[in-house]
Amino acid sequence: MIKNIIRKLLGKSSLSTPVGETTLEAVSLRPAAAPAAALPLPVEPTPVAVAAAEVAAAAVAGPVRGTRVEVPASVHRIDASLLDERAVKVVTTLQDAGFEAYIVGGAVRDLLLGHRPKDFDVATNATPEQVKGLFRRAFIIGRRFRIVHVVHGRGREHEVIEVSTFRAYLDPAAAEQVEGNEKTSRAALADKSHVVDASGRVLRDNVWGPQDEDAARRDFTVNALYYDPRRRIVVDYHDGIADARARVLRMIGDPVTRYREDPVRIIRVVRFAAKLGFEIEPGTREPIRACAELLSAVPASRMFDEMIKLLQTGHSLASLEELRKQGLHSGIFPILDAVLDDVHRDDGREQFIQRALADTDRRVGEGKPVAPSFMLACMLWHDVVRRADELRARGELPVPALQLAIDAVFDARIGDISGRGKLAADMREIWMMQPRLERRTPSAALALVAQPRFRAGFDFLRLRADTGEADADLAQWWERFSTADDALREELFVEARQQDQARRAAVAAGELPAEAAAGAAGGPAKKRRRRRKPAGARADGAPALAGADAGGD
């Protein structure tokens, strides 16, 4: 009863407002405020009405639920050929079972912009257990937000459709509060549905509700859109279609409150602005710097994931520039501090990283996979080189210096995150391969080309050569060698010996610095002298060289 009175007090209607056959420009999708005369206020408030009014007043700070507007195909103009048939099948299966179901969020936004979405999410009023029961391969995941992954296909061709249940809007003041975050307070979070931390950040939210409240909980108006592929309508509560056409990012509700609920929204607004080329609406933009300190409470693993998303949008350079623009380029991501700090503008790494990120953007644009390990290896390379140089200056041998430098930089910039082991192994292999690429002997070269990560190591070398950090002739030699037949490889080995002899002669004559005899971090000529030490080696030195390669790795 209280809820019904509140709805009446707020002038809320459950009726849909379909848009007629007209152009979008002629329709205002942001509802006007209801006139005071339309509000059915009682002449003499009863105690129940007074209590309801107090509850309603307490909810003013929460998101505005908006009015349901059904926008037909003649207005939204979504191209049905851009839809994913598996996502459509999930929606229709849920609808045939008697549930509401829609394609939702970023997929609808991208469809409105004429782009083929990379991922399709579905929202429904079915609970996770009900969704799981309708599909043969469906899995309930997550504690903070319980959702269902519906899996289609197998192996590399598989696709996951993420299905979420409509969530209720709940007053943050009414939520249970715990100390710490979702990692440090797992015991306190057990068996709870709606929990926040001391700053108001939502740690758990698994209370189901109607669609209008689900829309109010979403972050930006352009992400609070629901598309029914069967009826070909878009359901819009917050004028998201108009904002998408105007290319504006607008927060639903009070931005400060929404940033407190989930500080990662600060990073999301930067990512979407860069990815979509949208302007951030002034009210959404103004609190960003003041709220940035809230990010310190977000677990490191989640922040790391958000950083990777930021750099893999296909607009990584624009994303970094947007971070600078919003004052978030320092102190947010330890890895980006190694890139964006002004002190690094003149130390050679800026050109190197810009080339790496431009190549990443190109690959994303071409639909090619991008390995986070390669991208991060590029971003932290100069930290590794600087640290290795310091260790060598203190007397550490080249290869151990490089190994110790890698460990130190990884601990300082990445820390203890989920998946660190695999990521660290891939990055280490790329970095440790750089001095090995200087040793162009038959045993060393053939062993390197046979390694699974050779291509990543070679691409890294080529990037170094493009920026003048490594010998361009060396990169060209490896490119030819990697695709050559046996006869051409013999010729290339002769060419390599001649180039190495010429470089050593130039170093001896003082025409080149000693480091040029090898050219890679940690790979000076003294390593060549160490290879000749093992006794009993053949005249051609092949066994000794092979052993040095194995130890160097």
From TrEMBL:
Residue ranges of coiled coil: none
Known EC number: 2.7.7.19
GO MF annotations, alphabetized: poly(A) RNA polymerase activity
Composition bias type Basic residues, residue spans: 525-535
Domain Poly A polymerase head stretches: 101-250
Residue spans of biased composition, Low complexity class: 505-519, 536-553
Domain Polymerase A arginine-rich C-terminal: 395-532
Family recorded in the similarity comment: Belongs to the tRNA nucleotidyltransferase/poly(A) polymerase family.
Protein's recorded name: Poly(A) polymerase I
Organism: Sphaerotilus sulfidivorans
Gene this chain is encoded by: pcnB
